[in-house]
Amino acid sequence: MFCEKAIELIRELHRMSDGQLPAFNEDGLRQVLQEMEALYEQNQSDVNEAKSEGRAELIPSIKLRHCCLLRNQRCVTAYLYDRLLRIRALRWEYGSVLPANVRFHMCAEELQWFSQYKKSLASFMRSLGGDEGLDITQDMKPPKSLYIEVRCLKDHGEFEIDDGTVILLKKNSQHFLPRWKCELLIRQGVLEHVVS
Amino acid sequence: MVSFVTARPAPQAAGTVCSAVPVGRKFLNTHTKKQTDMDPSEVEFLAEKEMVKIIPNFSLDKVFLIGGDLGPFNPGLPIDVPVWLALNLKQRQKCRIIPPEWMDVEKLEEMRDLERKEDMFTPVPSPYYMELTKLLLNHASDNIPKADEIRTLVKDIWDTRIAKLRLSADSFISQQEAYAKLDNLTLMEINTIRAFLLDTLNCMYKLRSNVQ
Amino acid sequence: MSDALSDDGSDFNQDDTQEDVMTPAELIAKLEEAWLNEKFSPELLENKSEVVECVMEQLTHMESNLQRVKKGDAKASIHRMEIDRIRYVLSSYLRSRLQKIEKYFPHVLEREKSRGEGEPSLLSPEEFAFAKEYYANTESYLKAVALKRMPSNLQTVDMIKAVPEPCLDSFVFLRVKERQENILVEPETEDQRLLITVDPGDIPEIKTAQRSHQEACPSSSPFIQNKD
Fold first, then answer.
1. Which residues form the DNA replication complex GINS protein PSF1 C-terminal domain (chain A) (predicted)?
2. For a tag site, which of A44, B60, C20, C109 has the least CB within 10 Å?
3. What average pLDDT does the segment C205-213 reach?
């Protein structure tokens, strides 16, 4: 059956849940392209024959092959585009540096698309005014209560909060601290947010 | 030449033989989160803009916020502040929150009874009654008399209203109306059916307009 | 579906006229309004870059003031909380626009191209630059990875045809800010038309109808609350 390979590409993505990026199926893509080439060549010769020898009975099969060609093109494009959207989502989730196992699943052109996307997004955010622009990939959730409960994961020493109080961040100690003061330390793995 | 094109005869370019392929359907679709959704945390965020009375235990001069002035704060003197600030001050034990007037067992009982009696949605005491109840009871229940009874009453009112909402959504759809008046509904209430109702309507609209 | 709500918008457009003096509080209210409208609208709305710029200025100004505040100032934490809240609304607003631009990029650019002289631009200059790059990037990606390896008559994809358009016939929830008489609502069946009058505070639910409707009737945008 024609277009089986192309549908298989679509199915492959369909089976994955939204956030996942399977390995780029270079082999599957090549097989679709080969099928397209074969269909196209057969059509070329049939068209010539139909024209020169007036063989109208060839036309239905020409038509069928052409439909298959269009369908293949459509499926391949949909496959590629859907992957781009998944890759785009990764930028918003992981930031501008993708984890190695994700990069491993991308083809060279996708990596290129991604780096261009990063650039476009970065210059958009820089152009928003202020000194450094505005990083709109931050602040994904509405700000909640300003103070959060944190647990210290390693010894960090003295730490001054905004009102001038100095506290000692000792391993396993728990504190009630302003969120904006902790964010960086949480990212660095010094503190952990205790969700009650 | 045999005519093989049925629906739409297309001009034939040299390479292309025919075009009777369903190209009309858009295929580069996105399945990201629906644009028109609103997260409950966002509704809560909006609710936090509402003003509430507090009694501070500290003194502080006027604060000139971008969104308007607040204060001055004097110990023991009631003052209106946005809920987001009230909750923070409360969290740091800098104030006592005075519950809004409607957050009162007797008043809420009346509202519950009226809500059960009427077919239409009755006016609510605050456009964010549900979120405010939740926020204040979670963070300042010690400042609210009969907190548990209030929680139950507000839940009863909410349940009654949501049941009405489901009923009217159902008849809205089955009677194929193009317009519905939803007065007195709050954002949070609409939110519970927004995605579902709008998807349904859009779907049915598509089906119907394709039929014609 | 179309002509119902268009064309008679001229008399209630004052809402959009530029006020020269706006207090910071009014500015923030404008931002919140733009945010909610953008969030609930199925299509990209007109850009509000002057609001975005002013809010950015306010934030930067306040941040730099806070740098100079001496330690232990109780006011500083209140200011910070407010900044957090405003920055969230601003980011969420810009994100919501960017998401639509990415989703509908060929159509967004097409509308920008066919925009008449003097008609306000849908996209801010920054968004326009982003949309163009996104288009070029995506197009050249598809070409490089697959299309150029296809038969010669299949090497292009018409983006306008392939990428879905925003659905302007979607249903939306509206909150009414000013009384409007004789709003025409078209039901599904063609023969029957419905005239309604809406009062402030009403929340009718109708279809977005045509784009012209939104321009004609900015006062009844989704979930705008009258804060006067």
1. 144-195
2. C20
3. 40
Query: Looking at residue A27, which CATH number applies to its domain?
Result: 1.20.58.1030
Query: pLDDT at residue C189 above 50?
Result: no
**Whole-angstrom distance, CA of residue B128 vs CA of residue C225:** 13
Is C102 part of any domain? no
The interface pTM score, or ipTM, of the predicted complex is 0.82
Among residues A151, A120, A134, A50, which one has the least CA distance to residue C134?
A120
CA–CA dist B133, B100 (Å, integer): 10
What gap in Å lies between CA A171 and CA A151, rounded to an integer?
A: 8
User: Which amino acid is present at B75?
Assistant: P
Q: Tally Cβ neighbours within 10 Å of residue C182.
A: 9
pTM: 0.81
Has residue C188 got a pLDDT over 60? no
Question: Which tokens in the block code for residue A10?
Answer: 């679509």
Residue of A nearest to C66 (CA): A162
- pLDDT of B190 over the 60 cut: yes
CB B25, CB A74: distance < 8 Å: no
Task: Map tokens 């939104």 to a residue.
Answer: C214
- Round to whole Å and give the CA distance between C92 and A128: 14
A92 domain-assigned:
yes
Q: What is the mean pLDDT of residues C141-163?
A: 92
Look at C145 and A136 and tell me if their CB atoms are within 8 Å.
no
CB contact under 8 A, B21 and A141: no
More confident residue, B26 or A113: A113
Summarised one tens digit per residue, pLDDT across range A106-148 is: 999 999 999 999 999 999 999 987 677 898 988 888 887 567 7
Residues with Cβ < 8 Å from C222, sequence gap 6 or more?
C36, C37, C40, C41, C172, C173, C174, C175
Which amino acid makes up residue A23? A
- Residue B19: list chain A partners with CB under 8 A: 66
Q: Among the listed ranges B170-179, C111-120, C202-211, which one has the minimum average pLDDT value?
A: C202-211
DSSP string, B156-178: HHHHHHHHHHHHHHHHHHHTT-S
Q: A177: domain range?
A: 147-193
Which residues are paired to A192 by β-bridges? A151
DSSP string, C136-149: HHHHHHHHHHTGGG
Query: Any CB–CB contact under 8 A between A33 and chain C?
Result: yes
The total number of structural domains in chain B stands at: 1
Whether B91 sits inside 8 A of A67 (CB atoms) is: no
Determine the average pLDDT of the residues in A83-102. Answer: 87
CATH code at position C191: 3.40.5.60
